[in-house]
Target: serine-type D-Ala-D-Ala carboxypeptidase
Amino acid sequence: MKTKKRKKTHVSFRINWLFIVVFLLFSALILRLGFVQIVYGENYKREVEKTEDETVDSPVPRGKMLDRYDRVIVDNKPLNAVTYTRLKGVTQEDKLKVAKKLATLIDVPVTTDVFGKSDKKKDKNTIKLTERDLKDYWIATHPKAAAKKITAADKQKVKEGQLSEDDLYPLQLKRITKNELLSVKDDLEVIAIKSKMEGGYALTAQIIKSGLTDKELAVISEQLGDLPGVDTTTYWDRMYTYDDLLSTLLGKITSADEGLPSENLQYYLSHGYSRNDRVGKSYLEKQYEDVLRGQKARVQNVTDRSGNLVSQETVTEGQRGSDLILTIDMELQKQVEDVLTKAVTSGAAGSRLMDRAFAIMMDPHTGDILAMGGKQLVTDKQTGARKVQDFALGNMTTSYEVGSAVKGATVLAGLDSGAIQPGTVFYDAPLKFAGGTIKKSSHPIGATGIQNALEQSSNVFMYRTVMSMAGETYRPGGKLNIPPSIFNKLRSYYSQFGLGISTGIDLENESTGIRNSVTNEPGKALDFGIGQYDTYTPLQLVQYISTIANGGYRMKPHLVKEIREPELDSELKGSIQSSVEPEVLNRITMGQSEINLVKQGFRQVVTGSHGTGRLLNTGKYRQYNIAGKSGTAETFNKGVSVRNSTFVSYAPYDNPEVAVAVVIPSAYVAGTSNTLSKTVTGDVIKAYFDLKKEGEKEVEQKEEDAKTGNTELNGVKKDDNEQ
Model:
């Protein structure tokens, strides 16, 4: 019995100690929890409730482009759009669920060549899916089958260091078969939407589709609660008021899919752009990107620790881009392009190879480009039919041999170098040299001075001038000795007028023409003096004729006249940020009396009884007092001997307002002729003065209305900004 009592006491004692220990531990835990609650409670609460702020930029509409009389050329068209904002922590499964839901609500145009050549017609909104897009989607939707693409051998190689973990995904992609891809063929819209969703930055709205129909907009708006990250907004696309007019010159902007051009990626990123921003990618849109882009709106996104969006706050309101006021008169541009379209389609050309025509008009005193027309015939690959398209850009990016149009520069070079004098007379008859070489004009003219030589376009007078500049005297039957240095000498003179060098226009990618190699062939040097060797652009030609028209000042041509602040009220003008002032690039070295001799010769081209441009002194053209110089250049097109037809001019002769260069490559074939370049010249000059007269009448009417208090005519309010 004593033994049993002793054991019971011992067990009881141990249990009591266990209770005491447990009690002490719980007491310590309670004390610790109380200490944490009282001392650190607020800190931990703040940590739990901690949020993250991230500021993102939202795009704004680009600036407009208007003509010199405030007619809108390029504007922004609002479109309904659906966007997706990727929050932090969102899984692939979450995005896939949203993509599938969206695919049932909107129609997304998709095309792919993965299953054979697609016959679906594509437009700018069509999303083209690659094989990689489809494979990524297959892996995301077939995780078990995708996992089997990685073999035990592959995993062993990873362990042994022969492969890395990053190498496994490419192996999965490579091992997906065509048959497996067929299983996702019916999910192309889902794939397209998901690829769009993954294209942007976190917390930055990514355009999924713009141009939503009213029905699509309504359906999505109703179901936004079931589409986390999805929202509807207004998106802007470029709208061209005059359709195809000047389209090549105005330039293009990148699509949301293209984003920033890869070749300038770092430049744009360093200047505050996002990768999917739309930017100007060519010509005016690109050249004036900094002006047109505007200031983005800044939005502060507040998210919790899990990445859920808590709130949004606009930090700064955005401002659309500034407006460009161009020097172009769009009404004049329209008429110039109508004239050129008629020229390339009327059948008046004597060559089946004629497929383009150019006419460029400039204010010779300011360098303002008033119209820059170019039309090109192209063949539709599907129908085989020929159609006319805009090629205004060709005025500065393509160059041609222009023939006798440059003879004014040759005469002035001869006068300035002392090779000829104002009273110099050469006898125009075929020049015969040793070896049977003959150089001649289109017809013998006889004794001729500077003005008559320009009037009748004497080649012989120019040949003799070039020979004299080279220190060579003509000897019938003698050997022609002209040093190659004459090419550089003539080019130096021609460059004073802008021929063969950059005109300085406010656009990139301007061609300076083709300088053919300097040669020891003396006959080529003579041809150079009549425009038969180097090539020039229509833009260079209009700068050249302007320099002569204004008395010797080479003006810098420009397409932008002003930059204005954006104005919310479309009826009001924004204040001027900056304006482009006329800029003189150089003054030619010839004196005013020498320039006047050439100007008189150019007037005789039109008014003289033997003038090559006398068509412009007849009928409807006579009243404009045109002066100018024709040009015909012998060249080859696809092995056929053809003639480029050119005409440079200005009007009125005694007080030039407008300078014009017309270039029609391959206008006719050898052995024929036509007056197409002269007709185009007359028609575009007539258009200029007709519009001027209409503008003057409108001004007179407005002044009369102001006096009488009548601001409306025929119930239609007049636009004070119209010409």
Q: What stands out?
A: Residues 474 and 701 are 64 Å apart (CA to CA). The chain is about 35% helix and 20% strand.
